[in-house]
Amino acid sequence: MDTIIENEMKAETNLDSQALLGISNFSAGYDASLILKNVDMVVPRNQVVALLGRNGVGKTTLLNSILGLVPSSGGSMTFDGRAVDLMAPDQRARLGIGYVPQGRDIFPGLSVWENLNVSLRVSGAIKDEAEGRLSEVYELFPVLKDMLKRKGGVLSGGQQQQLAIGRALLLNPKLLILDEPTEGIQPSIIDQIEDAIYAIKKKGNMSIILVEQYLDFAKNASDRFYILERGSIVQEGSIDKLDDDLIARYLTV
Predict the structure, then answer these.
(1) Do 184 and 105 meet the contact criterion of CB atoms below 8 Å apart?
(2) Structural domain that includes position 137
(3) What Å distances lie between residue 140 and 143, 197, 224, CA to CA?
(4) Among 148, 161, 143, 144, which residue's Cα sits nearest to residue 105?
């Protein structure tokens, strides 16, 4: 038994040392309402971490806290070895935190190319660097290259999601947050998004936080998981430990 506990402690120490994002004893909320309570979470480098929980448990507040949109009420948050608790959202974005929101938020009146070009301009990538980033996005989502002149607003929901993810990838983030990427998406495009996550992991230069209700997708795409319940982390571990008992206790509606 001592050996098992010792091995688990070593695994946790290694996890902390590999952290891209580290959240410790973190609390946050809105005005006088405390939503997150003493949250501890580690996102290792080059891994996909699923953030799971029923609706209303604090997932959105945690994402907004990582983005800098909700101020901390206590605890600490580090990103790539730097304290970010007091940093504004634009500072965090420049450090390498990318976000694909639920609902996608593409520019419907702009063409696919214009949507992508916005990210290239923001990132400052030009010439060969810009072409290289575009080539990688087109390789992940070939449909975008075929629809460069189409307005974003006329694309299907799945195509808009691919555009939203592609646009975020052009910013070359170190951490990409995907909020419900499969919501309202047809199965064939869900498979393409899953393949894209595998390709990103294989490249080995980006971590992902995946907020997802489609558990089969989350289990296939992720390395680790955290479950939120009433604003606190109640379960965590490698994705193979997300069993039927945990799903029934914390995730089944």
Answers:
(1) no
(2) 107-170
(3) 9, 9, 23
(4) 161
- Structural element, H or E, at residue 242: none
* Per-residue confidence band for 253, with pLDDT thresholds at 50, 70 and 90: confident
DSSP 148-217: TTSBGGGS-HHHHHHHHHHHHHTT--SEEEEESTTTT--HHHHHHHHHHHHHHHHHTS-EEEEE-S-HHH
Q: What is the signed CA dihedral for 60, 188, 191, 249, rounded to 10 degrees?
A: 50
In a domain, residue 33? The reply is: no
- DSSP state letters, 70-135: S-EEEEEEEETTEE-TT--HHHHHHHTEEEE-TT----TTSBHHHHHHHHHHHHT--HHHHHHHHH
140 is a domain residue: yes
On the question of pLDDT at 13 being above 80, the answer is no
State how many domains the chain has.
1
Give the other-Cβ count within 10 Å of 84's Cβ. Answer: 20
pLDDT at 16 over 70: no
Comparing CA positions, the residue from 161, 120, 168 lying closest to residue 143 is 161
- 118 is a domain residue: yes
User: Angle 112-123/157-169 helices, nearest 10 degrees?
Assistant: 20
pLDDT band of residue 197 (cuts 50, 70, 90) is very high
Give the pLDDT confidence of 226-252 residue by residue, as tens digits: 999 999 999 999 999 999 999 999 999
- Please check whether residue 143 lies inside any domain of the structure: yes
